[in-house]
Amino acid sequence: MMFPEKLDGADVLYYTEKGDYGTVNDTNGKICDYVSYFAVCSYSSDKNKYYLFLCDECFDVITDWFCDSVEECMQIASNHSREIVWHKC
């Protein structure tokens, strides 16, 4: 299965291979979802803003971070795993 070119209306610039990148927990610490992919995205309406999307195994966006650059998105992702391989979309 190929990684989608758009997530939540945003253009995917870079994405990771499927991996075990941790979990997203609620305020009580209960696991809400498992992160299987990272994606660096931007919206066509504002190409100078970037978002790091955390996605589940079905490519659904669990949560995101707003960042000032592609490099910042990748740095945040590397805090979750050192074994990240990025692919350009």
Output the keywords.
single chain, 89 residues, mainly beta, two-stranded antiparallel ribbon, 1 helix, 10% helix, globular
What class, by secondary structure content?
mainly beta
Q: Treating each run of at least 4 consecutive H or I residues as one helix, how many helices?
A: 1
Which word captures the global form? Answer: globular
State which percent range the strand residues make up.
over 45%
The oligomeric status of these chains comes to single chain
Largest sheet: 6 strands, antiparallel
Average pLDDT: 93
**Annotation, overall tally of beta strands:** 8
- Counting structural domains, the number is 1
The ordered H/E elements are EEEEEEEHE
Distance between the first and last residues' Cα: 14 Å
Cα Rg: 12 Å
Uncertain spans: none
Q: Which bin fits the share of residues in helices?
A: 10-25%
Description:
With 89 residues, this protein is mostly beta strands. The protein has one domain (6-88). The protein is built from one helix and eight strands, in the order βββββββαβ. The two termini are 14 Å apart. The model has no long low-confidence stretch (mean pLDDT 93).
Write a brief caption for the model:
The chain has one domain. Helix content is 10%, strand content 48%.
Protein topology:
Layout: E1 6-7, E2 10-16, E3 23-25, E4 31-34, E5 37-43, E6 46-55, E7 61-67, H1 70-78, E8 86-88
Antiparallel strand pairs: 1-2, 2-5, 2-8, 3-4, 5-6, 6-7
